[in-house]
Design brief:
The chain is of the alpha/beta class and about 500 residues long. The chain folds into 3 domains: about 160 residues, 3-Layer(aba) Sandwich (Rossmann fold); about 230 residues, Dihydrodipicolinate Reductase, domain 2; about 50 residues, no CATH class. The protein is about 30% helix and about 20% strand. It is built from 17 helices and 16 strands. Strands 14-13-12-11-7-10-9-8-16 form a 9-stranded mixed sheet. The chain has a 7-stranded mixed sheet with strand order 3-2-1-4-5-6-15, with helices on both faces. The radius of gyration is 23 Å and the shape is globular. It binds nicotinamide-adenine-dinucleotide. The site of nicotinamide-adenine-dinucleotide (NAD) has 22 residues, from loops.
């Protein structure tokens, strides 16, 4: 057996697939509590449910980069083929035979492997089932965003948390990207005074944006639509940046681009079922080749006979029910208002945000290169070099650029910092309080749920009408909303 604890920081997804082929196939949440219970010496035991694309990030951390402090005790999924891939991954990189369990055997997984915490990386709508059950069975939880997809499931998580006292960490990796942490730092410093309003516009380009229309994300029952699935990141960032919670939401949304009519407008005869069998693949600008790309072939195409999950469905299908064009107004408990938009067929990928404060304006722009499809196994930078900017515009003084903090790796360097924050037993005090729990998870996803409701009713939706009495998350203190503001003289 190979040494299970070497330094293996650089395991790639391609390595994972190669290994699979050969074998043929709190906070960490509660970490300090867990460590105390174990006398401060034992490695923390993790089980993982949902072993698709995103799960690999956490699996790699537990099995390799953070294996000194963590161990993987079991995998669970509804797809037996992906379970075998995950098992092969563990065998290859850690020399471990991690047991695998069908989703119907989740309770047995917990009883037999006794994890301290469960990592939830299933499709969004299934998160709450595992979060609730894991807590009921005595485990803490580390869950991917969005914590869940609707208010009923959100209430179930709060009920379970109150009943069990267990902790649920929501992995908002965007908070950890150095430029976004820097924005928080600047806002905390009071450089633009206290913020009164926000303008925030997020652009998904036609590569990344279209990808949400290919698979489970394209139906609200699975993902809550882009307002929940994607914008939970953005709403969480704003809540955290402002140290405020949302109280009301008014929104409009429509699907205007990824439609059967648009298939014809871009020169196709019609929409079709999926790329693999598409009669017009040679002339469709949205064709995704999952047969030759190794990641897609192994993780999805080779496993689809088990569950009928097609990774490459036509982005112009009529049964899609999520929006691609969304505009949202949010009111916060501090009196701040935000105008937000999300567009899924943009000419460029990234975002612009402006905070209007009592002493000036902070303008931040990030242009990204994320999710170039297919990545072909390469490590592709996810930001355009030099295209991330932070500019301070003081009231009645000259504007200036601030040098932007840098990081390496996925999600602008955020993922790596976050993994340390989740999996290292001793973490330095974080003055930005980036670790998020179920309260922050709720306040971000509920803005999306409220927006979805407002799309259909045209009404303003109160967050407290969705889930009552959510305690405020832990946010750092911000500049005073009442202190005197010395106004510079007119020039
Ligand atoms: N933070 C980020 O930047 C980021 C990026 C990508 C994905 N995600 C999140 O990670 C999660 C997984 O996304 P993904 O891209 O890996 O999706 P995926 O489709 O590749 O994988 C999902 C896995 O969950 C399994 N699954 C689905 N329903 C299940 C159920 N009821 N019980 C057990 N297993 C089930 C599927 O078989 C599959 O293996 C999602 O919640 C997504 O929102 C987050």
């Amino acid at each position: 057996m190979r040494n299970p604890l070497p330094d293996r920081r650089e395991i790639s997804r391609r390595d994972f697939l190669t290994a699979a082929a050969v074998t043929a196939t709190g906070v960490v949440v509660g970490s300090s509590a867990i460590e105390e219970a174990r006398g401060g010496t034992a490695r923390r035991r993790f089980a993982q449910v949902g072993v698709g694309g995103r799960s690999i990030l956490y699996r790699k951390a537990v099995l390799s980069s953070h294996a000194e402090h963590c161990e993987m005790v079991g995998f669970c999924d509804l797809n037996p083929g992906r379970l075998k891939l995950a098992q092969a991954h563990a065998r290859s990189f850690a020399g471990l035979e991690v047991p695998i369990y069908a989703s119907s055997d989740f309770d047995r997984l917990i009883q037999e492997t006794k994890p301290d915490a469960v990592i939830v990386t299933t499709k969004d709508a299934a998160h709450s089932d595992y979060i609730v059950r894991a807590m009921e069975l005595g485990c803490d939880v580390v869950t991917e965003k969005p914590m869940t997809t609707d208010e009923t499931k959100c209430r179930a998580i709060f009920d379970a948390q109150r009943r069990t006292g267990k902790r649920c960490r929501v992995t908002f990796n965007y908070r950890y990207s150095p430029p976004r942490t820097q924005v928080k730092d600047l806002l905390m410093s009071g450089i633009i005074g206290d913020v009164l309003s926000v303008d925030f516009h997020w652009h998904l380009d036609t590569f990344h944006g279209s990808d949400y229309f290919r698979r489970w994300h394209s139906n609200k029952v699975n993902s809550g639509g882009l307002m929940v699935h994607k914008a939970t990141h953005h709403f969480d960032l704003v809540n955290w940046w402002l140290s405020a919670v949302p109280v009301s939401v008014m929104a409009t949304g429509k699907r205007h681009f990824y439609t059967p009519a648009m298939a014809k407008r871009i020169g196709l005869e019609s929409h079709h079922d999926r790329c693999l069998t598409c009669p017009e693949k040679a002339r469709c600008g949205f064709y995704l080749d999952i047969a030759t790309h190794p990641e897609y072939r192994e993780v999805y195409l080779a496993q689809e006979h088990y569950d009928g999950y097609f990774r490459d469905r036509c982005v112009f299908r009529p049964d899609i029910d999520i929006e691609d064009t969304m505009n949202v107004q949010v009111g916060y408990n501090t009196g701040v208002t935000m105008a937000y938009s999300l567009n899924a067929f943009s000419a460029w990928e990234g975002y612009q945000i402006c905070f209007n404060g009592t002493k000036g304006r902070l303008e931040h722009k990030m242009e990204e290169l994320v999710y170039v499809n297919p990545r072909e196994g390469r490590s592709v930078p996810d930001r355009k070099e030099g295209a991330t900017t932070i500019r301070i515009c003081p009231i009645r003084a000259a504007a200036y650029e601030v040098p932007v903090w840098k990081g390496d790796g996925e999600h602008a360097g955020g993922d790596r910092v976050m993994l340390d924050d989740i999996f290292l037993p001793q973490r330095p005090t974080d003055k930005y309080l980036r670790a998020a729990d179920h309260r922050a998870g709720a306040f971000s996803l509920l803005v999306g749920v409220a927006a979805n409701r407002s799309f259909t009713t045209g009404e303003t939706v109160k967050i407290s009408d969705l889930v009552r009495e959510i305690p405020p998350p832990d946010y750092p203190p911000m500049p005073s909303h009442v202190e005197p503001i010395p106004m510079p003289a007119r020039a």
